[in-house]
Amino acid sequence: SYVLTQPRSVSLAPGQTARITCGGNDIESKTVHWYQQKPGQAPVLVIYDDNDRPSGIPERFSGSNSANTATLTIRGVEAGDEADYYCHVWDSTSEHYVFGTGTAVTVL
Amino acid sequence: QVQLVESGGGVVQPGRSLTLSCAASGFTFSTYGMGWVRQSPGKGLEWVAFISYDRHNRYYADSVKGRFTISRDNSKNTLSLQMNSLRPEDMAFYYCAKGGAPVGAAFDSWGQGALVTVSS
User: Regarding beta strands A9-12 and A103-107, do their DSSP bridges make them parallel or antiparallel, or are they unpaired?
Assistant: First the structure.
């Protein structure tokens, strides 16, 4: 089955740029979505179709997808960005949705 | 605005059944695929099942295939998940999520979740 691998955690100071990776075999051939989940809350879509932002999501959030790695970039990280982030794809071979392992972002 | 409200969670013994429901409003339910995603306490997100807008296509995670059934009633704007032969590892928060018309689209709206506890 298709596997998406993310770093367990990322820690950085306010104002820095967070880059959260999502590794998968030939992931560039798939469409990647990203979700933010804060403690005790449901996930929220922050990036869809590799690099599009839903309305209401700040421009600080962006995405890219190339070769075997998709990346969620958060510029100018704020305390309110502290959350778990998950990547997400549809694998047409297995006809399964797949979530990444999740990355906890800590703002020091 | 889009609203998804899950119900039907609770405590159930291993081997028993439970049905979750999701009441949808604020969008044209019959034109969107819908899914279920679960999350065990302290763990990551796990996709469970997806149903196309017209019910013609249903997809299941390997961990639930043959035990869970996803269905929808477009006349009542309701999504359901019938869970049979429940196991301790099925214990989780179950989220209802709105997808797109084509399979593979993002889940752009989520409910608040229903907790399923499997314990004797």
Answer: parallel
Distance, in Å, from the CA atom of B115 to the CA atom of B10, rounded to the nearest integer, reads 6
Nearest alpha-carbon partner for B86 in B117, B62, B58: B117
Average pLDDT for residues B48-75, to the nearest whole number? 97
**Cα atoms in the 13 Å half-sphere on the side-chain side of B118:** 19
* pLDDT value at residue B119: 94
Residue B70 confidence class, pLDDT cut points 50, 70, 90: very high
CB B10 within 8 A of CB B94: no
Residue B54 phi/psi, 5° resolution? -100, 10
pLDDT at B101: 77
Q: How many CB atoms lie within 10 A of CB A87?
A: 29
Residue of B nearest to A92 (CA): B104
Separation between Cα atoms, residue B71 and residue A46, nearest integer Å: 28
Question: In the predicted model, is pLDDT for residue B44 greater than 80?
Answer: yes
Q: Got the DSSP string for B51-108?
A: E-TTSS-EEE-TTTTTTEEEEEETTTTEEEEEE-S--GGG-EEEEEEE--SSTT----
CB contact under 8 A, B59 and A43: no
Residue B61 has its nearest CB partner, among A49, A89, A96, at A96
H/E run at residue A101: none
Cα separation, B20 vs B49, whole angstroms: 13
B103 phi and psi angles, rounded to 5 deg: -60, 145
